[in-house]
Every structure is written in C-alpha cells, then in structure tokens.
From TrEMBL:
Swiss-Prot/TrEMBL GO biological process terms: threonine biosynthetic process
Gene Ontology cellular component terms for the protein in this record: cytoplasm
Catalytic activity: O-phospho-L-homoserine + H2O = L-threonine + phosphate
Pathway annotation: Amino-acid biosynthesis; L-threonine biosynthesis; L-threonine from L-aspartate: step 5/5
Domain Tryptophan synthase beta chain-like PALP: 87-321
Threonine synthase N-terminal domain residues: 9-60
Enzyme class: lyase
Chain positions with N6-(pyridoxal phosphate)lysine modification: 107
Keyword Lyase recorded: yes
Name under which the protein is recorded: Threonine synthase
Keywords tagged on the record: Amino-acid biosynthesis, Lyase, Pyridoxal phosphate, Threonine biosynthesis
NCBIfam families cross-referenced by the UniProt entry: thrC
Organism: Campylobacter helveticus
C-alpha cells in the first residue's frame, strides 16, 4: 500500500519515501488511503513484537525485514518481551502504561522503532532531523539517534514550557550529532518554526549534502507504531471497551481510532484535554476555533497545544481529501472552521471528549491508588463506572515531581532528587536509575534564543 496526501489523494508515495520526507507537495500529511482489516484477536497468543509485525504486514508496505529490526528496539524497554504494562485496576478500569522505555514517556513507543527505520532507510544518506517538543518528543528523539553517524538531530523546546527533568534529559545528552535549542516562546511557536524551516527552500539549499526530515507526529512513521499498543491491549482484554487518551497533537488518540477501524473492539475513543480545550470543543461542538485563544500553561505541559496536527488525518479519513483541504485552509486563513451537523455526528460515533482543569487533575492524582502523572490524571475526568475502559498512561510520574509533591502532600518541591526518592518510597515503587542520574550530570546553564535565530545556529553547526 502507498500513503496518500490528505489534501490530494491522487498523490501517493511509498512508506519509505513518506518516512524520509514527510513534506507533501500540497502541505497536507501522508496518511493511509484506507485502513486494512486485521484480525488481532486471532493473534492473541503472539508476543507483542510478533503481534506488531502481523499488524504492520496487513498494510502491505513491504520492508518486512527492516520492520523486524525496528521492533527489536523494544528489547531496551523494562521488560524485553513486552514494552507495555497493562494494569488491571478493577473490573471496569485498566491502565495501559506506555512509558517503560528509555526516556520514561510514551514517545519511546514510536520513536525507538522509528529511529531504526530511518537509519536503515538512509544508510547512504546524510539526514538532519528537526524536532520541536513540548517536553517528551525531544528526549525520545535525541535518545533514538544518539551517536548515529549519518543522522544529526536539532531539537527546539520552549524554555519555560517543560519540566526540569525533561529539560535535563535533553541538555545532558552530549553526543556530537545532537543539538538542543531552548527558545523564547511556547510549543506552538517551536512547531511553527519547525514547519517554516521544513518548507524553506533557501534553508534546504544551504544544508549542503544533508536532507531534511522531521520526527514530530506529522510523520506517519510514528503513527503506525501508535496503533499497535491500543489494539494489543484491547485483544488482551477481549471485550468491547472504551479507550481514554490524554491528548495534545492527537497522535496517540488517532492511533486508537485507526486500531478501531482495523478491527479492534473499541466503542468510544475518549479525548481528555487540559484547559487548552481546543479538542474537547472540536468533538463536542464541531468547531475548531483559534480566534482569541491563548495557550494556557498547565501542569500537563505536553498537552499545552492549540494546533493539533493530526486532526487533519482524522478529517481525511472521515470526509476525504477535498473537504479536508477546504477545512484546513479555512483554519489557516480564518483561524476557524465549523463542521456541518452530519459531519459532527460522524465524529460522535467514535469519539467523546472533555477537559480537566489543573484543580481537578490534582484531585485525581491525590485520590489515585497508584502513582499517575498529571497527563494521565486528566483521563479520570472521562471515566464512568458503566463500561470497561483503558486509560492510556503516557508518562512516568517522576518527570513531574513538583506537581506530584503539590498534589500528594500539598508541599513545594525543594530538592527534586530527594522528593522523587521520597515519593517512590512512600508508594513502594521501584525507580529505574535514568531519571535520578540526571541530577548528577553536568548541566551548564542554558542560554535561550529567539526562534528566528534557530536557522542560523543550525547552519553554523552543520557547515562548521
Ligand atoms: C505527547 C504527550 C501527550 C500528548 O500526546 P499526543 O499524541 O500529542 O496527543 C500526552 N501526554 C504525554 C506525557 C506526552 O508526552
């Protein structure tokens, strides 16, 4: 199967091409023309990696040996045999822990295998990967390409928009092929800078022999791996269920929707937002309205996003390319679009949505029997006792200790390393060393730059 462009389905490229160069001629996103059927329930007894390979094969992209290699990257997770941990809380509630990889957030689920795919596809090329992060994509991308001889990564993060642990994860990675820029601005600013550079011919020409690529979830190579864990978990439980997803750029939730279309017995995909409730408005009212909205800083920073890129793939799947183009152009030009009643009803067949304030989020953390991070906590707003539900748990709590201290003990965090140990002891959980070690690593004070300076900084570095 080839992937088509969301704003012009007559244009298609093969999987490898879409992965290496996610930039499309019309400015849309590469996405499957349709979702293949896959009988995951017949694969119940396969291991996670075997299940994943069967699901990927159903797309008929080819590259089977390369995918096998990519899936081996899950050997680096806590349990070599299965990268996820599906916890049963009670008859109605399961938590799908997706953060057992090297950087303790679900971004590793896709970026670890993605890193192998890109390296394998680009053995005879030099690649510069641009990455804009709200906190977790950055560390996961840097980790995935650390010391790769042909691939350089330039990563931008909003200076005051991530947790300390997330910033340290990026700043303490010292490999020669990696550069990190703290920018003055929020995530939307970082993502905008990235999109501008990706399409700027003059910039590309100055990169000499480097080709430009992006690791954000605009890349279909990431979405593919985000279908698998939803389907796999649904198969393990076996019954019809809902999946609740803490959402920002809508990559994770889109994976759940694609899993449903492929055959997973998922009833509703429930979208949890924080106070940046653009997605909950979208699914409840059918409007995407950026006019006079300002980004609000919350305790779930990875969801502090207003421009949710992957909604475009959903529009394509539901309403086809012409309508997608129309809606996305309206959003660009008028900062607003509105679906008609039929379209909204079509969304409501698969989705529900609500948002969770910081205040509510703190209560959910405090009242939870197990440790949950502030992103995962937003999902409890959508939990109801009548159905079986899986909450998608996207990060380990240890990345957000100041918020955890406030929620659990109503205390300010003074020494983050000590407080992490204290919480772990109190809840009798074992911690992997990766997070604690960060506090012992050298961390030169960072200089932040304006987003306009990023271009020159990258060129200086590449051409030195
Ligand atoms: C990235 C991220 C999210 C949002 O996921 P999307 O796929 O962008 O919707 C939620 N929680 C955490 C911890 C994240 O890192």
């Amino acid at each position: 199967m080839h992937l088509v462009e969301s704003q012009n389905a007559n244009f298609s490229v093969d999987f490898k091409e879409a992965l290496i160069n996610p930039n499309t001629p019309q400015g849309g996103l590469y996405t499957p023309a349709f979702l293949p059927k896959f009988d995951g329930y017949a694969c119940k007894n396969l291991s996670y990696k075997e299940f994943a390979l069967e699901l990927i094969k159903s797309f008929k992209f080819g590259y089977e040996e390369t995918f096998k290699k990519a899936l081996k990257s899950y050997d680096k997770f806590d349990d070599k045999n299965c990268p996820i941990v599906l916890q049963k809380i009670n008859e109605k509630l399961y938590i799908n822990e997706l953060y057992h990889g090297p950087t303790r957030a679900f971004k590793d689920m896709a970026l670890q295998p993605f890193g192998v795919l890109l390296s394998e596809f680009c053995k005879d090329k030099k690649i510069l990967i641009l990455c804009a992060t709200s906190g977790d994509t950055g560390p996961a991308t840097l980790k995935s390409f650390e010391n790769n001889p042909n691939i350089k990564v330039a990563c931008m993060y909003p200076k005051n928009g991530t947790s300390l642990v997330q910033a340290l994860q990026m700043r303490t990675m010292k490999a020669e092929n990696l550069r990190v820029f703290a920018i003055n601005g929020d995530f939307d600013e970082a993502q905008k800078t990235l999109k501008n550079l990706l399409s700027k011919e003059d910039f590309k020409n100055k990169l000499k022999n480097y080709e430009l690529c992006a690791a954000n979830s605009v890349n279909f190579g990431r979405i593919l791996f985000q279908i698998i864990y939803h389907y796999y978990a649904a198969v393990q439980i076996g019954k019809k269920l809902d999946i609740i997803v803490p959402s920002g750029n809508f990559g994770n939730a889109l994976g759940a929707y694609f899993a449903k279309k492929m055959g997973a017995k998922i009833d509703k995909i429930k979208i949890a937002s924080n106070e940046n409730k653009i997605l909950s408005e979208f699914f409840n009212e059918g409007v995407y309205d950026l006019r006079d909205k300002k980004l609000i800083k919350t305790i779930s920073p990875a969801m502090d996003i207003l421009i949710s890129s992957n909604v475009e793939r959903l529009l394509f799947d539901k309403f086809k390319d012409k309508r997608t183009k129309e809606l996305i152009h309206q959003l660009k030009n008028q900062k607003y679009f509105k679906l008609n009643q039929n379209e909204l009803e079509s969304l409501r067949e698969d989705f529900e949505a609500d948002y969770c304030t910081d205040e509510e989020c703190v209560k959910f953390i405090k009242n939870s029997k197990i440790l949950i991070d502030p992103h995962t906590a937003t999902c409890f707003k959508l939990f109801n006792e009548n159905k079986i539900q899986i909450i998608s748990s996207t990060a380990e709590w240890s990345k957000f200790t100041p918020s955890m201290m406030k929620a659990l003990f109503q205390k300010e965090c003074i020494n983050e390393k000590e407080d992490i140990k204290r919480i772990a002891k109190e809840f009798k959980v074992e911690l992997k060393p990766e997070i604690l070690e960060l506090f012992d690593k050298q961390d030169e004070s960072v200089e932040s730059i304006e987003s306009e300076e990023v271009e020159n900084k990258i060129l200086e570095w590449i051409n030195q």
